[in-house]
Amino acid sequence: MMKVQHIEHAYECKDCKVDSSQPAQIKRGKAPQPAIQRSIASPSVLAKVIYDKFAQYLPLYRQVKEWNRYGLNTNDKNLSNWVIRVAHDWLLPVYERMKELMMAKSVLHVDETYGQIINRSDGKSGKSQCV
C-alpha cells in the first residue's frame, strides 16, 4: 500500500515585509480536499470499497480483513459509514437526475429475468431465485 502525503507551503513576499506600511502578502497552496471530511479514505479507496461490495458481492466484514492485510486497520462499521456518505453526498445527485430523465418518458422497459444462485456464501440452498 502506498501512502500519499500532501504538504501545504506558505510563501511570504520579502519585498512587502521591508515596507511596513503594507500588510504582509502571504500566499498558501491548497491541499486536495478529501471526498469525506475528516476521513482517511481517498476517492480510490472509496471506489474500491463500493465496487467490491456491489459489483463483486464482497461483504464489508471480508473487505475489512483484506484492508488489514494491506495495513489499513479499520472495521466494517467504518466502511459502512463510508458507503452511506458516498451514496448520499456523491451519488444521490446522479440518481436524482437519472430518475428525473426516466420519469419524463412515457414508457419504461425493465428486464425482470430471474437467475438461479448456484453457490451461496451464506450457506442457504442454491435453489432460491434472484433478479
Structure, explained:
The chain starts with 9 loop residues before the first strand and ends with a strand. The protein is elongated, with a radius of gyration of 24 Å. The longest helix has 28 residues. The protein is mostly helical and 131 residues long. The chain has a domain of 72 residues. The protein has a two-stranded antiparallel ribbon. Strands 3-4 form a two-stranded antiparallel sheet. Helix 3 packs across helix 4. The model has no long low-confidence stretch (mean pLDDT 84). It is built from four helices and four strands, in the order E-H-E-H-H-H-E-E.
Q: What's the gist of this structure?
A:
By secondary structure, the protein is mostly helical. It has helices spanning 14-18, 43-54, 60-70, 76-103, and strands at 10-12, 26-28, 115-116, 129-130.
